[in-house]
Amino acid sequence: MSGWVQRLMPHLVVAPLLLPMLTAALMLLIGEGRRPLKAALGLGSALLGLGAAVALLGWAEACGRVVYLPGNWPAPFGIALVVDRLSALMLVLASAVGLCALLFATARWHKAGVHFYPLMQLQLMGLAGAFLTGDLFNLFVFFEIMLAASYGLLLHGSGRPRVRASVHYVAINLAASSLFLIGASMLYGVTGTLNMADLSLRAALIPAADRGLFHAAAGILAVAFLAKAAAWPLNFWLVPAYAAATAPVGAVFALLTKVGVYALARLWTLLFAEGGAAGPSAQVGSDVLLFFGVVTGSLGALGMLGSQRLGHLAGLGVVVSSGTLMAALSFGRWALTGSALFYLVSSTLVAAAFFLLIDLVERWLNSGTTVDDVAPFLTASLEEDQDVNLDDDEERLVGRPFPASTALLGLAFLACTLLVSGLPPLSSFVGKLGMLSAVVGVGAGGAAVSWRAWLFVLLLLGGGLASLVAMTRAGIRHFWSAAPREAPRLRLAEGLPVVALLLACLALTMGAGPAMRYANEAARALHAPRGYADDVLDTPVVSKEQPLGARCGAP
Known about the structure:
By secondary structure, this protein is an all-alpha fold. The chain has 20 helices and three strands. The protein is globular, with a radius of gyration of 25 Å.
């Protein structure tokens, strides 16, 4: 039995790709009229995908890096799928958010249009492929699968706002995809390869006459990734699109900007890492990346201060987190990157939860059912009871508890406020504190802290303060200043995903020690590109002597 498990375990690497692809194909064959069956298939596939992602995360933790060759061709000639700590972490994050979004959609949103479940499965397939691939061209392929599904998901539910937002969304992403192709072809022309590991080794061997062309190709590719990561000034499409999307789609869209950040982190460290084989190209573009990160995060924070709509607040919160992550990557320090990865997980979970919560809050406030009592917290049925406490004005101090559903929405909004703002004691605060400690520690040892570090500190603190003011104001407006209403009616499928995502943030807080150690190990491996290149290029093909089909790197 152990031999069978050993033979099957390497092929688990392709499960996050094959599961949603086959599920989407089966759903299309079933037809649109059997939504309960399609919902069960979608949830089952997402649950299995999450289980596979967790297993791969444990495998990556034990091995350090797992390389799988689907076509049994050695790299760089064949396709390589690479599971390391970072890609496994992103895979678990995408699977968890996707599962919660699908569960939330079963309550009502899956009925708003056709082919919702197949599109969600293709979206999860594109996300998984982008995190697993070790080849630049296949990264483009999975980007396009992900974006093609997102075009249909953005229009799910129809309506003029979604159609108008989709025009900008499709246009900017098609332009970014074109730049992706141009940059990738230029890199291939200069280096002769698109395998990421091979690119990392060949970067130092580029002749001086071609190095300018190499930098130009990397810059064009970076523009494509920056557009997908919602960097200013290419992020004008994000807030209207995310605010117009249905709640489960908005929750999944919170992952899309992180794919751009992931691609930037992976390619930039492979090609330009200071301790790698970059040679004269080491740390190229770091100041540019810092500039885009700081401007993006700052403008996102200012936008939150000026926003009155919850959907816009959620979209701008995604922009702030993306800007913070881009600025953190620009320093090229593994300690700062490790805390940034911890913050990435927390910010994505809370963004997804916030998009789902907004749908519940706005439906409750727009229900049109008001309570006649001007003081609904007083219990009218006890007015004749004389055995009550009185205040200084001899008014009765009799109250009744908030209904459970109202308390759930209020506490969830409070948790989102703390997490988006990065206040203690929750996980976003831990990530921000780690980034602050790391960036100020860059100048340790008697050296003065650089202006770049102080700029990043200002972004972290100023962005958190602006987010706190904006979220607090929104909470007062929507929960305390609104007209009294009856308790909201929540289905289990609606409340459970929100609670699950927020509990995941709480679990991240309680297990901050092990989680931060894992993130730091992922960052160490990310900033040591030579180990990545050696593991990928030295992976043997399947043979009778070595029939596993995958190679486990050094932990």
